[in-house]
Design brief:
The structure holds two protein chains of two kinds. Helices cover 17% and strands 32% of the residues of chain A. Chain A is an alpha+beta fold. A five-stranded mixed barrel of chain A has the order 1-2-3-5-4. The longest helix of chain A is centred in the first third of the chain and has 17 residues, at 2-18. Chain A is globular, with a radius of gyration of 17 Å. The relative contact order of chain A is 0.19. The model of chain A is unreliable at 1-22 (pLDDT under 50). In chain B, strand 3 and strand 4 (126-130) form a beta hairpin. Chain B is of the alpha+beta class. Chain B contains five helices and 13 strands. In chain B, the strands form three sheets. A nine-stranded mixed barrel of chain B has the order 1-2-3-4-5-6-9-10-11. The longest helix of chain B has 15 residues, at 65-79. Chain B has a domain at 44-228: Lipocalin, CATH 2.40.128.20. Classes of the chains: A alpha+beta, B alpha+beta.
C-alpha cells in the first residue's frame, strides 16, 4: 500500500514538474467587443496570482449552460480595488458581465459582478487606481 | 571529532581564493545621513498602464524592417484574439520590459551604495542598482535584469544597464515583443515630475532589433495606502490548486488550463 501511495505521489510530482507553466497571459483571447451576462452560482473563487479566477455555474438564460471560467487581474491589484479573498463565496448567486472567449469555450474576461442577495457591485478596472493619490 | 575538524580545515585550505573580489565596506554614519538628501521615493509606485499603451501608439520602437514584420505578425495575432503569451513561462519581464509593460506596483529602497527596486509581479522581481561608484565587471554573467550602475545627477538617478540576456523581451505588450538580442544597453533616468509622479525615461539600444536607440517614458504614480503595498506575487501559483497528499498534508496539484493559459472550468 505504501509503495502504491509513494508511486502515486511520485507520479503527481512528475506531472506537476512537467506541466507547462501557463500562468500570466494577455487578455486578448477575450472579445472586448462582446459582453455576455452570466446569471448563475459561484462554484469556485480562486484568489491566486497572477490571475484571480471564478467559476460560474450557469443553468438559465439564453447563453450556453455549464460552468464558465472567468479571469481577473492579480490579488494585489484587486485588493487596491476593494476586493478581498472573501468578496465572493461558493454558492453566491451572481450576475457576472464578461468579455467572452473568442473560441466559444465557456470562459471570459471579467467586467463586473453583482451579488444578487445584497446588490453589491464589484468592478475591476485598473484605470481607476493608476491616478495619483491614495 | 578530530577527523571532522581536520576535514573542515582541509576544505577551508582547498577553497580557491578569488584574486579580485573587492570588499564592500560597511556603511558609515555619513553614508546613512546622505540618504536623507536623496529625493523621497517612499511608498508604492503603480504603473500608469493607459499611458504605456499611449506611448507605444505615439512613439513606437524603431524596429528594423525584418523585425517589424515579426512585430506586425504578433500584433495581428493579438488583435485576432490569439495572443502570443510572452510571459506564459513565468520567466522575468527583465530590463527594460519590467518598466515598459508591468501592470503591478514597484517599491524603491535606498540604502548606502545601492538602490533596490522590488517588483510585485511576476514572482517579486528584484533590480539591484549599484550607486557605490563601482564599474561594471569586465565579463558579468548575463541576466534578465542585467548589471545596473547608478549615478545620482542631482535628484535624478541615471542608470546604465548592460549584460542583459539576449532572450529577454523588448515588449510593447504582454503579447507583442521580440528578444532584445546581443549587445543591448538600456539607460534609465528616474526622476519626479510631480509630487507623486515618477518618470522613468528610457533610452534603449538594441542593435540586433532596432535601427536606432528608442527613447520612451514610463510613468508611475505614488500610493501610500496600505492596500498598495506590494504583496507576494508568485507567478506559477495559479497553475496549481489546493489538495492534500496521500498522507493528508496540505499540497498542490496542477489545474486544467487551455493553451492560452486560461483556467478551464470542469465539465458538468
Amino acid at each position: 500500500m505504501l509503495k502504491k501511495i509513494m508511486s502515486t505521489g511520485a507520479l503527481a510530482a512528475a506531472l506537476a514538474l512537467s506541466a507547462p507553466s501557463l500562468a500570466h497571459h494577455s487578455f486578448a483571447m477575450f472579445d472586448q467587443t462582446k459582453v455576455v451576462n452570466l446569471r448563475g452560482t459561484i462554484s469556485a473563487y480562486r484568489w491566486v496570482n497572477p490571475h484571480v479566477s471564478l467559476f460560474v455555474d450557469v443553468q438559465d438564460g439564453p447563453i450556453k449552460h455549464g460552468v464558465w471560467a472567468v479571469e481577473l487581474t492579480s490579488p494585489g491589484n484587486l485588493t487596491r480595488l476593494g476586493w478581498s479573498r472573501q468578496s465572493l463565496k461558493v454558492g453566491d448567486k451572481v450576475d457576472v458581465e464578461v468579455n467572452p472567449l473568442r473560441d466559444g469555450a465557456l470562459g471570459g474576461g471579467f467586467r463586473k459582478a453583482t451579488i444578487l442577495s445584497t446588490g453589491q457591485v464589484l468592478q475591476a478596472r485598473l484605470v481607476e487606481i493608476e491616478k495619483p493619490g491614495g | 571529532m578530530i577527523r571532522a575538524s581536520l576535514f573542515a580545515l582541509a576544505m577551508t585550505l582547498a577553497a580557491p581564493a578569488l584574486a579580485d573580489d573587492p570588499i564592500t565596506p560597511a556603511p558609515t554614519a555619513k553614508d546613512w545621513l546622505e540618504l536623507a538628501h536623496r529625493p523621497d521615493w517612499s511608498g508604492s509606485w503603480f504603473p500608469v498602464i493607459s499611458d504605456q499603451f499611449a506611448q507605444v501608439a505615439s512613439n513606437p520602437p524603431p524596429w528594423k524592417p525584418e523585425v517589424q514584420k515579426q512585430i506586425d505578425h504578433w500584433d495581428a495575432e493579438e488583435k485576432a484574439g490569439r495572443p502570443r503569451g510572452l510571459l506564459l513561462d513565468c520567466l522575468p519581464h527583465g530590463v527594460p520590459s519590467f518598466y515598459l509593460i508591468t501592470h503591478n506596483s514597484i517599491e524603491i529602497l535606498s540604502t548606502p551604495g545601492r538602490v533596490t527596486i522590488l517588483g510585485e509581479s511576476d514572482g517579486n522581481r528584484l533590480v539591484r542598482i549599484w550607486t557605490d561608484g563601482r564599474k561594471p565587471p569586465a565579463d558579468p554573467d548575463p541576466s534578465f535584469h542585467g548589471y545596473n550602475i547608478g549615478v545620482w545627477q542631482g535628484d535624478t538617478l541615471a542608470v546604465s544597464t548592460t549584460a542583459i540576456l539576449p532572450q529577454t523581451w523588448l515588449a510593447v505588450s504582454e503579447a507583442v515583443g521580440i528578444a532584445i538580442g546581443e549587445g543591448a544597453h538600456v539607460e534609465q533616468k528616474f526622476h519626479l515630475i510631480g509630487p507623486d509622479t515618477l518618470a522613468v525615461d528610457l533610452t534603449i539600444s538594441a542593435p540586433a532589433v532596432l535601427t536606432r536607440p528608442w527613447q520612451t517614458r514610463r510613468l508611475f504614480t505614488r500610493k501610500r495606502a496600505r492596500s498598495y503595498e506590494i504583496v507576494e506575487g508568485v507567478c506559477r501559483q495559479g497553475d496549481f490548486e489546493e489538495t492534500t497528499d496521500p498522507w493528508g498534508n496540505p499540497a498542490w496539484r496542477p489545474v486544467a488550463q487551455s493553451a492560452d493559459g486560461n483556467v478551464v472550468a470542469p465539465a458538468k
